[in-house]
Description:
The chain is of the alpha/beta class and 373 residues long. Helices cover 49% and strands 13% of the residues. The protein has helices at 36-47, 57-83, 90-109, 127-136, 153-168, 186-203, 218-222, 227-242, 267-276, 294-310, 326-339, 352-370, and strands spanning 20-27, 114-120, 139-146, 175-178, 208-214, 251-254, 281-285, 315-319.
Amino acid sequence: MPGTPNYTGLAGHSHDIPARAGVLLVNLGTPEAPTAAAVRPYLAQFLGDPRVIEYPRLLWKAILHGVILRVRPKRSAHAYSRIWTEQGSPLRVGSEALAAALQAELAQRRPGPVRVELAMRYGRPAVADTIARMQREGVRRLLVLPLYPQYSATSTGSVFDAVADTVKGLRWPPELRQINDYHDDPAYIAALAASVRAHWDRHGRGEKLLMSFHGIPERYLRAGDPYFCQCHATARLLREALGLTDEQAPMSFQSRVGRERWLHPYTDETVKALGRDGVKRLDAISPGFAVDCLETLEEIAMQNAEFFREAGGESMRYIRCLNADASHVDALAALVLRHTQGWPEFSPGYDAAAAATALAAARERARRASQGA
Ligand SMILES: C=CC1=C(C)c2cc3[nH]c(cc4nc(cc5[nH]c(cc1n2)c(C)c5CCC(=O)O)C(CCC(=O)O)=C4C)c(C)c3C=C
Ligand SMILES: [Fe+2]
Ligand SMILES: [Fe+2]
């Protein structure tokens, strides 16, 4: 029988629940509403993270609270209001849809009780709350999959911090595995290439395909962050899959904040230069984002498309992220299966019926205990 038998005589004790495996998808997080009041606490948590801003702490806290959090929330809220949907923030809606689709796919491919949950690094649902709840519900093995194809200390590394902090506080932490990155995963690259080809079939082919990745300060690259090289590797593999040259498919880095130098070339300068150089129809894709968000829908599809037109281009068409597309779900499911080898819940021969019976019995014992029977 899966799980640890309960020898304690304490009904509802944590041993009493059959073991299950969990997959925790983690994305960046997003404000609760497109308003300055909702954006402020989100930005305070995000920009207060020492993984994101590597700067002398006291000095940075003073700048953050004294200057940035007085100005930026209003500006960001305006940008969010341009992309907000009836269901809420695109990042949340897309991430939830992806988690649900992955849950369904894994349930089909594997016999065991596998739980897929979504947490956010900043805002809600918090990583700590989600892992603690999964633990209470019997998750004894946990795979953490940050929704960042390329590793950066600022994104993936920070997710691992949150996981480590959580595990420290648990009496009985789950067995833990973490996926660092999947920037060169063949199924992921194939899914990206297929999405570009589908776009070409529908809209015709632009003269160039711009691949824009989120930037980070160049200082972090020099300190050893592998992000820049992983972005280059993704870009090269995508070019190869599509049969394009560096010229036909340039890459760039977007979203810089502050005055220091970030990774080059910058996306805004690149689209302006392409427009000036006589490119008329430009395709753009963001292969560093699993799910569409402010940085793709507002910054690329709206802002940079406008920069391109102002510089003389005719139209820049944005190719959406893979979101909950079947090809994306298939790629992530295969990734999960590779990283969970040896876990009984994912292995053929797992007795799902026995686990379900044990779970029902444990629930019944807990119900009786709570009624004082
Ligand atoms: C100022 C430092 C920042 C670093 C370093 C950084 C790295 C980084 N970010 C992402 C992914 C996303 N970032 C998003 C928004 C966003 N990013 C920053 C700043 C840094 N990011 C800010 C201030 C914001 C908030 C919006 C704004 O005020 O401009 C998002 C979108 C969130 C959403 O709600 O839609 C994503 C996704 C990665 C992958 C990364 C390092 C590689
Ligand atoms: Fe960011
Ligand atoms: Fe941005």
